[in-house]
Amino acid sequence: MSFCWYHGNITRSKAEDLLSQAGKDGSFLVRDSESVCGAYALCVLVSEEHLQAIHQYLCLHITSDFEMVRNGCQNLPQLKKLLMTLCTGLYSEITRTLPALESLQTTFEPQFSPGFRQRSPLPGDPGTSNMMSKLNQLTSMVSSLEEKVKTVLMEGAAVKHRRSLIPPIIFEVKVDSLGISQKTHLKVDVETGKLVIKKAKDGPDEKFYTSKKILQLIKSQKFPNKLTISLETEKEKILRKEYIFADTKKREGFCQLLQQMKNKHSDQLEPDMLSIFTGTWNMGDAPPPKKITSWFLCKGQGKTRDETTDYIEHDIYVIGTQEDPLNEKEWVDILLRSLNEITNAEYKLITIQTLWNIRIVILAKQEHAHRISHICTNSVKTGIANTLGNKGAVGASFMFNGTSFGFINSHLTSGSEKKLRRKQNYFNILRFLVLGDKKLSPFNISHRFTHLFWLGDLNYRVQLPNSEAENIVHKIKLQQHQELLAYDQLNMERKESQVFLHFNEEEITFPPTYRFERGTRERYCYTKQKTTGIKYNLPSWCDRVLWKSYPQMHIVCQSYGCTEDITTSDHSPVFATFQVGVTSQFVSKNNPGDSDVPGYIELLYCKATLHTKSHTKFYIEFHSSCLETLYLQLTPIISDLEYLLDQHLLICIKSSDTDESYGEGCIALRMEDPQQQQFTFFTPLTHHGEETGHFQGEICLHASSGKQREKLYDFVKIEKDETVAQKQQVKAQCSQQWDQSSRSVKGLADKIARVRGAPLCTPETFSSNDHNMAAQALSNQVKQSPPNTPQAFKGNEQRSKPGSPVMGRGDIPITPPPRSSVPSQKILTSNNARGAPNIRQQDSIRSPAQPDIPEMVDNPLYGPVNSASHQPPVQSRPLKPPEPATRTTPAIRQRSMTCSSSDKKPPTPDKTAAKYVAPGSVNRPENVPSLIKPRPPIPAKLMGGRDAQHT
């Protein structure tokens, strides 16, 4: 070698001398090795000792000082040790120099004032000036260094790293000024709490508004990229400004950032809104890749979040996996490490539940740990004979302050032809999964929680012939997803109210997540070789996320899609994020000794319609955490209006003979106009996942006066455009026409009843005296639950169209009937006397807004399904929407409609006979398909009812 850095066969000590002579950090040379023949040794001049000491402090000892700052200590012992190490030479020099200076001071003591003090350097004396300047710089640096380190560590206690803070983000928008569209820029600075408006992106700030001056954001329904901002000016006037964003995703990102800013700078101690991430992934018995952060960032296909919201951290992460090969500790470590990469926030494991390879993990921010309580976990096996755990569900629930949450991760039976078996899995999970408060045993898990999320590999397939496989793949490439979703088994089952009754699902805009070729997302592998032959697995949306919330509760799905870069499994991970409203532990503003009239909840009128053949008496059972006593007049624990508007009543219609439930529902106490005390309600009744009727009536809510606090989720509103108002007007006109036609039908039925001689009893026939007497006699029919019953668990309503998005509070799917002005009973009366005739003519009269009675299907838990499953016909290209399935054979039993309402006859004074029986009979089903064999003759006692119906 002839390089200048090669020094041949020199000793190690000689190499050290040469490097010391160079005196520069990083200097190196190469010499021949002394121990290995033919090898070389690289000699490098290492860093100075002070750099090693600083490196050691940053790597090892800074964490100790960080913990001291978090615990409130003002001392930094490890930093002081580092300063003493770095200033060792300075200390020795000062110790050596100070006696010489003191001797000099003593010599010239008469000429100088007592004490050694600093003196301004003389002009023209550069040596003295330079020395004094360095001493001043040294003194200032040593005195300020500790304070700077302490400040950095204190900021780190709140935010672990500086890059986890949300940086200022600029949006380019358009604004109309005198009919001319002009560009402007909106800068959102979350950390300082300011919204800045400026013309140029890099130009100076023209105007800014603090978070308290931003009153409301109003989204336009007609224009999805239009947003109106209500601002408060200096003169306390409200200014409305309209902006046009580049697209809908940019508008949503802007709204989320402003909500984050309002939440960060809010004066409220407890949050009233949470951001929840839910994810499901069938891992296919394969370990995950090293990087899965795209899953938690909601990056991929479908409804994804804007990149401006990447810095916004979710409060709770719920991760459900199936066919998971890892143990619990390995998987939790991967999740925490992935979240630390993208958020750098501290998350705590709330709970974990595993059934074989089915697992659910819940993580929450460390700051929310003390707000979470009543954690409960459970699992249900639905494998072979319901004894194997390869299929089934795991669940977890908890209370966040005053709001209950439930999460279910399920893996249902696979196979396109096993739709009925999946339905049985669903009912088994719904019935046997035990979560939430045990005092709510009359209600299944779909009614026990304020917000319930159901995710997992549900294994519902696209129901098309195998010959359509290539056509399906072609339509996926063309992104014609909606045409294929018409054949999705889950959508078809939900449309027929077979499974997931009243659950919601965001609109699907991403491709099928199963079955991919492992290692890529470019090809679907829809054939599998088995011993019995080739099995087809058509591309399908197997992995889903659904939810159900109590009525009038705020919940918005902000994203729903799948990833593209995680390819270790034949399934793609699916993500869904939600913005949900929560309630805090309410403290009444009124003193217990106030003389104000306490609040109460009074049922002015109620009526239940049940699909049953039972001739029994019924009673209503109420459950709610806000109730103190349970009578006809319900007394809440707290009378504040702000508290009561966030509460719900769970109702259960039970048989007085067996105390078995015939239907459960939920009533929201939130009114459109809080100033009005009376409001009508209408809620469907369900039991074990089947719709069994509906419950309607009127409630009078008496509460103490007080100002209602504005919720954070009310900061963003949906603007009611003219088109929406026109639709509502048309809907009201149709409802009025339907009411008039129903009255004419009712009058005809009255005439028929008078001809047949049967009594006719309707709620409108009651007088005010009958109302009061009946209410007094029926007060014993309400069963009281313990006063310490926890908060009610509410259920959201089913949407009219599966897959349509839900914005804001859940709406009741069925239009409630018009409220009658005639007084009626306060409580539900008995159903039917045992000696009554079999046909009830008054029950054949439908109320003005009563929905059509669906044909009931037997629950597979209680007996065999008698109707053959209908396979849609093979479709030729292009695909056509599936035709509704028809029954080829009738069910074993046909349920009738039973109306339970008030009766005009006053009850007898005997207390033992407080429950009054309303006469009536059971409806005969209409439009029953004809059979191959002739029917048996109709009994003579039923002939009259049949003739009345034909008349």
Question: Can you offer a commentary on this structure?
Answer:
- The protein has 951 residues and is an alpha+beta fold.
- It has 5 domains: 12-46, no CATH class; 50-107 and 134-158, no CATH class; 169-264, Roll (PH-domain like), CATH 2.30.29; 273-493 and 500-581, Endonuclease/exonuclease/phosphatase (Deoxyribonuclease I, Chain A, 4-Layer Sandwich), CATH 3.60.10.10; 600-712 and 739-856 and 895-925, no CATH class.
- Helix content is 24%, strand content 25%.
- It has 16 helices and 33 strands.
- It is globular.
- 34% of the residues are buried.
- Its main location: cytoplasm.
- Residues 779-951 are annotated as: Disordered.
- It is found in: Cytoplasm, Cytoskeleton; Membrane.
SSE layout and pairing:
Blueprint: H1 12-22, E1 28-32, E2 40-44, H2 49-70, H3 77-86, H4 88-107, H5 126-158, E3 169-177, E4 180-189, E5 194-198, E6 207-210, E7 214-220, E8 226-232, E9 238-244, H6 248-264, E10 273-282, H7 293-296, E11 301-303, E12 316-322, H8 328-342, E13 347-355, E14 358-365, E15 372-381, E16 392-400, E17 403-411, H9 419-432, E18 451-457, H10 469-477, H11 481-485, H12 489-495, E19 527-530, E20 533-536, E21 543-549, E22 555-562, E23 574-581, E24 600-611, E25 618-623, E26 627-629, E27 633-636, H13 641-644, E28 648-655, E29 661-668, E30 678-687, E31 690-702, E32 716-719, H14 722-756, H15 768-777, E33 897-900, H16 940-950
Parallel strand pairs: 7-32, 10-12, 17-18
Antiparallel strand pairs: 1-2, 3-4, 4-5, 5-6, 7-8, 8-9, 10-23, 11-22, 12-14, 13-14, 15-16, 16-17, 18-21, 19-20, 22-23, 24-27, 24-31, 24-33, 25-28, 26-27, 28-29, 30-31
Helix pairs in contact: 2-3, 2-5, 3-4
